[in-house]
Specification:
Blueprint: H1 3-7, H2 11-33, H3 41-64, E1 75-82, E2 88-98, E3 105-115, E4 126-131, E5 141-148
Parallel strand pairs: 3-5
Antiparallel strand pairs: 1-2, 1-4, 2-3, 4-5
Helix pairs in contact: 2-3
């Protein structure tokens, strides 16, 4: 089936054709599994037809003004472990899970490199981070919100600094 043929379908015809093509794909897969399919290239052709139909369906939905893809934002909460680098903080996320067999609680933590454009988060702050596009080799997260500031002023050990 060519894309020119597919463009002639309206939305209802497109949905019914997609449903029919998916059913044909399942039938071919069952035939292949039971060794009844002689030409296995038919499966590849059907898959391409399904992809073409779905592409056209997405185009029609976009022209209608519907959202085609929604971005899933993942937000995690953790504590800033280090803020020594410029525009980068290290956030430790602690999680608790139970073991399968005995049900014991295990505490695990994982560190993430997080982009902080304003250098606003300090060590010890509780922050929320969200996933983002890759910023560098290791940074895939950005600072979303600082929940709780750690306003502790570090005490100097040198006697000269106290004057």
């Amino acid at each position: 089936m060519d894309m020119a043929d597919i463009r002639k379908f309206n939305l209802e015809e497109l949905l019914s054709k997609l449903k029919e093509t998916r059913r044909d794909h399942m039938d071919l897969r069952f035939k292949k599994a039971s060794m009844q399919l002689s030409d296995t290239t038919e499966i590849k052709k059907i898959k391409k037809d399904i992809a073409r139909l779905e592409t056209r369906l997405t185009e029609l939905r976009f022209l209608k003004g519907e959202k085609t893809m929604t971005k899933i934002e993942r937000i995690l909460e953790g504590k800033v472990v280090s803020d020594k680098a410029d525009k980068t903080i290290v956030v430790s996320i602690s999680t608790r899970s139970k073991t399968r067999y005995k049900g014991k609680t295990i505490k695990r933590s994982q560190k993430y490199l997080v982009h902080d454009p304003d250098n606003s988060a300090k060590e010890g702050d509780n922050v929320q981070i969200t996933s983002s596009r890759p910023i560098s080799k290791m940074k895939r997260w950005r600072l979303f919100k600082i929940q709780e500031n750690n306003d502790n002023i570090p005490v100097s050990l040198n006697k000269d600094d106290s004057k």
